[in-house]
Amino acid sequence: MKSAVYFASVRAYSDREATTQKVQRLFDAAGFAGGITPHDRTAVKLHFGESGNDGFISPVYVRQVVEKVRACGALPFLTDTNTLYLGSRSNAIEHITTAVLHGFDFAVAGAPVIIADGLSGKNVAKVGISGRHFQTVSIAGDIVAADSMIILSHFKGHIVSGFGGALKNLAMGCAPPEGKRAQHNARPFSMPEKCTGCAACMKVCPGKAISMQMKKSVINQETCIGCFECMHACPEHAIDINWETEIPLFMERMVEYAYGATKGKEGKIGYMNFLIRITPDCDCFPFSDAPIVPDIGILASKDPVAIDTASFDLVNQQQGSAASLLITLHQPGGDKFKGVHAQTDGYRQVQYAEEIGMGTRAYDLIRI
């Protein structure tokens, strides 16, 4: 059977088609209220954006979801987890401060911010999944404690997973640092022939696994935590990983974590993907690059596999922007995410998620 994915275009022709109204209508059309009961502690899971980033979902849109959840008699709270890398969200104090500076305060978004894995990422619950790679996964304690969830995802590119949508938001977003580390597992290596000795990689390494030897970067594979921050930071692209062997396994581990984040909440999770300002990289970057395709719209579904598949298809149906990081595959039908990060295959996410029973890639796109 196909899963229903509801779609609202960004196009508007009157004041009755404001994006805020479309968010509310999508919530209703997808039947999210049916999975929320009175007095539920409902986690509204999203990404508050790294300091300097402005590609995240607008708190004005988030408020529409919060109001719908509260109309169900539930208790909504905005949430995310602490990061593995150093930045403005590696502990709850700085994380909440960043969220508020980005507009996610009660006055705008209408709900309190609670960092789900606690002050320093130690509020952790073990969830059994019996997967190919994990028998148990580490999920943020307040995600597990929540009675229901609405997953709000900014759909965009990613240097390792190809794209980030509902599945990645569940997986990395609901995991504390120890869970993020377990998913990554892969270890980057430096290429001395390209390294100029600028030490940019060493400065961003949260595990202090990088040293400069003979004016070249050296990564200690034993102490490396696999966060890939060095790859982002290197201006010479002198750090790499084994894409053929490491990345498919990374995606499978990531999907198993996504599955673990949903355990115990069957029928009580709704998903919305925002295909607006589709940047080439994730909102963990301290900046936002130009979109790779035009804005498309917003999707809602109860099936995380179907909504990510539909999002992937809609992005690839667009003409790519020449004034962006998109290098190839600009034509409609081309895989835009491979056009940005040629060595990734984001579609493996939805394939494996379907294999382990998280949903189906078959969908009906219903326009509202």
Report on this structure.
The chain has 368 residues and is an alpha/beta fold. The chain is 31% helix and 20% strand. The chain contains 13 helices and 16 strands. The strands form five sheets. An eight-stranded mixed sheet has the order 4-3-2-7-14-15-1-16, sandwiched between helices. The radius of gyration is 20 Å and the shape is globular. The two termini are 21 Å apart. The model has no long low-confidence stretch (mean pLDDT 95).
Write the layout of secondary structure elements.
Blueprint: E1 3-9, H1 19-29, E2 41-45, H2 59-71, E3 75-80, H3 92-101, H4 106-109, E4 113-115, E5 124-128, E6 136-140, H5 141-145, E7 148-154, E8 156-158, E9 162-164, H6 166-171, H7 177-184, E10 189-190, H8 200-204, E11 210-213, E12 216-219, H9 229-233, E13 239-240, H10 243-262, E14 269-275, E15 297-301, H11 304-316, H12 336-340, H13 347-355, E16 363-367
Parallel strand pairs: 1-16, 2-3, 2-7, 3-4, 7-14
Antiparallel strand pairs: 1-15, 5-6, 8-9, 10-13, 11-12, 14-15
Beta fraction? 15-25%
Computed over alpha carbons, the radius of gyration is 20 Å
Oligomer: single chain
> How is the largest sheet built, in terms of strand order?
4-3-2-7-14-15-1-16
